[in-house]
Amino acid sequence: MELNNIFGNISFKIISARFLLRFWIFTMYPKPQAHNMKGIVFTEFIDMVESKFGFEMMDDIIESSNLPSGGIYTAVGTYDYSEMVQLVAALSQRTQIPVKTLLKTYGKHLFVVLMKDYSHFFPRIKSAFELFEQIDTHIHVEVLKLYPDAELPKFETKRIDNNTLEML
Amino acid sequence: MADFADGLIEAALEHYNEKANIEIVKLNESGSLVKFTISKV
């Protein structure tokens, strides 16, 4: 009985030590940080592909991409950035349109959607320069109130003169 | 993602009926750091 208790106690200590070691390794050496995107970026990409290339094309690129999400997205969900990279690469391969062109086209598409559905984020803005200057300081602040887990790009703007703006 | 941002910038200019030249300079090898110079014409 006593021996059982002693061995039980020893094995418990060994398991605890292993757990602590693993926990320490996990916390001290975390995996490289994954970059996430809000689901709206994916749902709007799907809308754009379906409207420009058809439903079959969208199904094809989702099936060929072997995505962890299975290609099922909700606008408020959060998904790995790498899935977007896979989708754009697959679309480029099938359409023979360069990734660069697809990304630029998608940027234009998403802007129109954001202006239509989230116009309250852009009150009293009268020019593109005003908009660019307020994205990081005002608009992203409002976005984070709605989506605290959103990972937003950081940038600074600098007016060189009335007609020139730098964004970094 | 510089090309994606380029699309957003172009769309914003179109939205406000403005025309501009957009110069893109990659500041690092990966292209994660980019400078846009937007010059209205």
Can you describe what's shown?
The complex is a heterodimer of chains A (168) and B (41). With 168 residues, chain A is mainly α. Chain A has helices at residues 2-28, 39-53, 55-65, 81-95, 99-117, 128-146; strands at 36-38, 78-80, 157-161, 164-167. In chain A, the strands form two sheets. A two-stranded antiparallel ribbon of chain A has the order 1-2. In chain A, strands 3-4 form a two-stranded antiparallel ribbon. Chain B is an alpha+beta fold. In chain B, 34% of the residues lie in helices and 34% in strands. Chain B has a two-stranded antiparallel sheet. In chain B, a hairpin with a 7-residue loop joins strand 1 (20-26) and strand 2 (34-40).
Strand order of the largest sheet of chain B: 1-2
The residue fraction in helices of chain A comes out at 55-70%
The Cα radius of gyration of chain B reads: 11 Å
Category by helix and strand content of chain A: mainly alpha
Can you count the helices of chain A?
6
Task: Summarize the helix and strand pattern of chain A as letters.
Answer: HEHHEHHHEE
Estimate what percentage of residues of chain A fall within beta strands: 5-15%
| Most strands sheet of chain A | 2 strands, antiparallel
Query: What is the strand content of chain B?
Result: 25-35%
How big is the Rg of chain A? 24 Å
| Unreliable runs of chain A | 19-33
Biggest β-sheet description of chain B: 2 strands, antiparallel
Structural class of chain B: alpha+beta
Enumerate the spans of chain B where pLDDT stays under 50 for 5 or more consecutive residues.
none
Strand arrangement, largest sheet of chain A?
1-2
The CATH topology of the largest domain in chain A corresponds to H-NOX domain
